[in-house]
Amino acid sequence: MPWTARILAVSALLLAGTAVPASAASPIDLTSGFYVNPSSAPASWVASHSSDSRASKITASIASKPIAKWFGNDANIGTSVASYVSAADSHDMLPVLVAYNLPGRDACGGESGGGAGSLGAYKTWISSFAAGVGTHPAVVVIEPDALGDFDCMSSSQIADRNTMLTYAVQMFQQKAPNTYAYLDGGNAGWVAASTMASRLKAAGVADARGFSVNVSNFYTTGQSISYADSVNSGLGGGAKYVIDTSRNANGSDGTWCNPAGRRLGVTAQVGGGAEMLLWVKTPGVSDGQCGIAPTVPAGTFSPDLAVRLIDGT
């Protein structure tokens, strides 16, 4: 049933005085599963390399699975986002999007720098992003790593970042009513849970659905649940959280940038110990010119990295 029909059905129940569960109009209930992006980086690689011996393995294990789509510094961000969520809606599926455009992003790691040129530019961009989602059902992860990079930032930069994140949360609250928005909360091996809870509060998490953990990292689902529960305790226990399971089946070896021996985790699902388990990071996309991919820039798909994740090598 298309999401518009679902909303009409809920509205009819309300008008009839019938009790409707609080979750009845959630983006999960308004759709029939997670959207598989036919133009994801692995899918695009397979389409261009169909005769490659690795193509069938990558198709079966990665390209055919629901993966979040990341959006960066796009002058036409509203149109780009609207096109993507509309495509998902046409299949009655739930899209997962990542907003990744903060000025000075990846301040500590340094491999994925860039972002909007100023605080004002970011506000314009994120407002257009949220407007592009509009009333479509969606899940949005807001600015991975944004609250973990503070050791590399000045107090004024941190204050500006909190201003931008708070504004981002407000934009989704105001302009995207059928979206679950999650501020990123780092991972189990980075920032102490109590510290992360304080940072999330300062960034406006109270106006979001909750927070995400383990984005682009490798900690097991169990480790991530334990960490997220501790963060949530520091928030008073009212937030929901999602976990990136894209590369976490073998856990972390303590490094974050293209380590060997990692493996694909469970694919996107509702529940699993969190509100959702998601593939936020695209498996096979490089973390940077490091680890087992020293010549592959951050954000670039590598079939060799993809096959290593499939095989766990």
Automatic annotation (TrEMBL):
Tell me a GO biological process for this protein.
cellulose catabolic process
A single GO molecular function, which one? Answer: hydrolase activity, hydrolyzing O-glycosyl compounds
Keyword flag Signal: yes
Which residues does substrate bind?
W70, W190, N217, W256, K281
Keywords (alphabetical) are: Carbohydrate metabolism, Cellulose degradation, Disulfide bond, Glycosidase, Hydrolase, Polysaccharide degradation, Signal
What's the Enzyme Commission number for this chain? 3.2.1.-
Question: So where's the catalytic machinery, residue-wise?
Answer: D145, D287
InterPro entries given for it?
Beta_cellobiohydrolase, Beta_cellobiohydrolase_sf, Glyco_hydro_6_CS
Signal sequence interval, chain numbering: 1-24
Family, similarity comment: Belongs to the glycosyl hydrolase family 6.
Q: What is this protein called?
A: Glucanase
Could you tell me which species this protein originates from?
Amycolatopsis mongoliensis
